[in-house]
Amino acid sequence: MSGKDASPYTGSGGDIKQGTIAKFMRKRTQLVGFETGLNKHTQYAIEFLDNAIDAIESWWWKTDSRPRLQDALDPALINEVRDRLKDELYDSIALSKQLEKDTRAGKEVNLPPQKKETLDDKLTQFRKFVVPFRSFINKREPLVVMKLTEVFMPDLVPLDDEEGFKVYEFICFDNGVGMIPKDLDKFGIYLASSKSEKLRQTRGSQGFGAPSAFSDAQNTTGKPIFSVSQRFTSKTATVADFYTTTANTKDYVSGPLEMELPFTQGTYIRLNYLNIQYRRGYADIYAEMASLLNSHVTIVFIDPYGTVNIYPRKVKAFPEEPKYAQPHPASIRIGEFQDLLREAGTRDLRSFLTKAFVRLSGNKAKT
Q: Is the separation of the CB atoms in 268 and 239 below 8 Å?
């Protein structure tokens, strides 16, 4: 057949299929750190602590009514938190080891009956969770709280699991900027980020951290994610119990609902995940190191042993808000330059060069 006789292919089908980023990452959460092992506990702390500190800083930069902070955190607030928590906490690791030992020895183990939690149950737990931190909330003292507890779900993992897997409940709370319902609906969706469009010196901006955490939590336990968030300008909080899907959407079990709750701003996330047993020297060390780099925020980390690690705020000054930066001509590659040309809203080359790049004046662009 000659080239002149050739006709374009018009059939259907084909071997190459296009997937979605959510479906791809759902099976590969280990690519961003959520791999079974001691570091996995740390990865949860990393992702949500970064988000929380970002939220607090964002509130500080946006609000017109900043609180008057003392030079450092009042020690009385630390003592108050410890006093209120001392009767509530227990060593979940020791309890787990004892139950595992009894199970292997053939002893009868009595666990409270497992019941399906309702939205009201989760809201009750949220209200109890914030009580010890009431003074922080009322004074608008910059605060992040993370709590990690080993919990028992024998229908999911036996107490004497041969591979040593345990179920953990992870909670993160901050009194930062909070999210409006529209943003909360996008929270946890891959590539959804408030900072991904431009260059800026900031913590996380890719939109992979929380979505991968949610994926790992669902992959390993099948449990939904519970969230509460209230924008600092709003009078009500948005509550939702949801799954994220491989279509990069949310499947709501309950909500989203708007209601009045005992805090004025911030975000609360609660989830469960599967991992090997927690050990000190990983997530706790990360929280301590993060407190040294973010001394304008009080960080509380309650570990599975029931230990309350409080890293108090040391300074009252917040860092300046990072500015968005344009690329420098010397640092850009040819493909990126072509993308900028395609996206440019101007047809004038001189105008394009001065708007697209930093340190490129009109005179330089002209030459």
A: no
Do residues 77 and 225 both lie within one domain?
Answer: yes
Residue-number span of the structural domain to which 345 is assigned: 329-366
Q: How far apart are CA 306 and CA 334, in angstroms?
A: 55
pLDDT tens-digit profile of 80-97?
999 999 999 999 999 999
Residue 358 and residue 278 share a domain: no
Instruction: For residue 231, tell me if it sits in a domain.
Output: yes
pLDDT of residue 201: 46
76-80, 190-194, 343-347: least confidently modelled range: 190-194
pTM: 0.86
Residue 241 lies in a domain: yes
The pLDDT value given to residue 130: 97
